């Protein structure tokens, strides 16, 4: 939906779809005791987990036909402010496909239940994405996400009013 909002070309949309499916393939190189842990990761475990984009690139980077796909996978944890990983890329150094995956993956992670926490309501996750526009996430990608989200059944502004009153 974000790619459509950005009016990506047909080939770019196909690359985005494949990159999105493969973006976490490097996790097959992460030990199960970290990957399946039922509690938040320790700092050392998080350092190991941060290797999954590099591992994914090692797995698929040599496949020439995937050259436009692997960068979405390799850079999906980079941030426009340079505080991402594994390379600390900034702004336009990050491919659009990776920036789209970053927003979509983060939103999905926030609304999904985990063994150690309940998923957030979609409206709270949406607001969190908006609040990190330009720092953690690309401004143009967040704007596209916002437009796409408002077209879904998850967009329920009345829920935010109830949450604000309760908070």
What this model shows, in words?
The protein is an all-alpha fold and 167 residues long. It has one domain (2-166): Hypothetical protein af1432, CATH 1.10.3210.10. It is 55% helix and 0% strand. The protein contains 10 helices and no strands. It has helices at residues 2-5, 10-22, 32-35, 43-49, 52-60, 67-74, 96-111, 122-131, 139-149, 157-166. The longest helix has 16 residues, at 96-111. The protein is globular and about 50 Å long. The mean pLDDT is 94.
SSE layout and pairing:
Elements: H1 2-5, H2 10-22, H3 32-35, H4 43-49, H5 52-60, H6 67-74, H7 96-111, H8 122-131, H9 139-149, H10 157-166
Helix pairs in contact: 2-6, 2-7, 5-6, 6-7, 7-8
Which features characterize this protein?
Hypothetical protein af1432; mainly alpha; globular
CATH superfamily, by name, is: Hypothetical protein af1432
Q: Alpha-carbon distance between the termini?
A: 31 Å
- Rough shape? globular
Beta-strand fraction estimate: under 5%
How many domains make up the 3D coordinates?
1
Q: In CATH's first tier, which class applies? A: Mainly Alpha
Give the structural class: mainly alpha
Helix-strand pattern: HHHHHHHHHH
Number of strands: 0
Radius of gyration, taken over Cα atoms and rounded to an integer in Å:
16 Å
